[in-house]
Amino acid sequence: MFIPNSMTSNGLGRRTRRLFNRTNNNRKSCEMIIDIHAHITYGNFKIFSRLLGRKPFTVEILLKRMNSEGIDKSVLLPLINAEVLDYYGVAGNQECIEATRKYPDRLMTFCGIDPRSMMNYKKGGLSKLLAVYKKLGCIGIGEMCASIPITHRLYQNLLYVAGEENLPILFHFVSKTGLSYGAVDKLNLPGLEKMLGKFPKTIFIGHSPCFWNEIASVTDKERIGYVKGAIKKEGKLWRFMKNYPNLYGDISAGSGYIALSRDSAKCCKFIEKFSDRLFFGTDRFTSVDEAVPPQIGFLKESLKNKMISKTAYENITHNNFERTFHLG
Ligand SMILES: [Zn+2]
Q: Model-level pTM?
């Protein structure tokens, strides 16, 4: 779909907004692509990002990129945890909800929640807040970046209500507190496994190097980086995916892309085996002219070369999303 370049810093004209809101009706539904991992930078307070020295990636820029890359719908992930708040100039809950109201046919949003919120000090304490966000249209929780152990009592309180409210949680995983951002877990993700078993009603969506590196046997030293190359021994993710139907993976960012492309035979086996548990995602928001996420070309090429089946392709690009989030 061609979108005229008529954006101004004052916002969009009504005609342009109508075009942005319309998904391409000529595309067959099997070609639908839904991005589960998108961010936008502050649009209501542009001077803030400018002073921070970050290039804007406003909702209008996201829509422009979606149109040129053939992405039909995106899920906005607010960043509100203390570790990431303001750091990237990424929009929070209110601005993401506003954006979905402006472009309801193209955008959906999760809500950002902090497990360290005082409301979460007792089990069930977050129920009211989650109900409010659900009422406002939020369909999941994340990107979860709070840097405390995944087994922490406060995470457990949140995991419980998320299951009760039927809100999947998208996690960034990290190896240590105070290193960067994300739920903390040890090598081989024993905490995640424990929580998957303890909260079977809660859908966990994994993301980040510490999650995806577990596709292969990995060392403590390697796990925080981008591990490339042959998968000599299957890692924990194979067993987790098999044993826990509430575990999903988001293939966004360098971590997701490398995990699914580092060893074509093994990776395609993983994709085929667990294609009903993978979501397409991009996780990029640096500027209007950044590179096209490699996941798009990878999936299309793999389908064309018969490395993955049409069922797997459609599961990842949209079917899993529609099923999990009860759309369509
Ligand atoms: Zn992200």
A: 0.91
